[in-house]
Specification:
Number of domains: 2
Largest sheet: 9 strands, mixed
Distance between the termini: 168 Å
CATH class of the largest domain: Alpha Beta
Order of helices and strands: HEHHEEEEEEHEEEHEE
Mean pLDDT: 86
Helix content: 25-40%
CATH architecture of the largest domain: 3-Layer(aba) Sandwich
Strand content: 15-25%
CATH topology of the largest domain: Rossmann fold
Length: about 270
Amino acid sequence: MASATAFTATPTPLPGDVRLMHVTANLLFVLAAVALALLLVNWIARQPAFALRSIRIVGDVTRNSASTIRANAAPKLAGNFFTTDLNADRRAFQAVPWVREAVVRRIWPNRLEVRLEEHRAVAVWGKDATADKLVNSFGEVFEANLGDVEDDSLPTLNGPDGSAPQLLAMLGRLKPVFERLDMHVDALSLSGRGSWRTELDSGAEVELGRGTDDEVVERSERFVGSVTQVISRYQRPLEYADLRHHDGYAVRLKGITTVIPKAKEQKH
């Protein structure tokens, strides 16, 4: 019996132009599917069901009520649940007075949640009391209505632009120093040349001079440690002190003068 021999047919390669046609057709199909999906998503995203219906305010809302915050920020919001720009929304809420930081997130299907952190005012900024500028606990200068501040004893800080953090840090170090005199720092200023000056709640003014923060604090501590003896001796309140001298300081006590009056001219 003759044995059968099996033969395997080798596929004939498609011509190059046919392969190119298949690849092109597949690519066009994929592009069409993607375009259709995008149109569908865009159509769904524009449906009224996804329009922003409510804004939930959480976090620190001591200075502003939730309704006031919404009224200030809502007109600046644009888009719906899918299209709204969260970064732009965050800036809109941070533009509300007293708001320091806002974190905005979407809540399915048509809400926003806004977590707020408010400024905590610790000082007034600048010599112009009508400028409505305050310093918060982070040393940041912000604008707000000074009439909203309940604490009338906030100190005033004044210095070059960008120096608020340095002034706030120095205030924190000098406060306990002058409290040993039963006095509180009402104002602290830093000149453009780096010279420090403070005004106390007693009305006394103290020129602290220049130097590193440590040098200024150390100079102030030496002054406070010895001036009490001068005040006790004369029983007069401190009016002015100048610590810019190398070997000591100059003081002026209320009611005591160191100026020698000119002698009256003798008549000839």
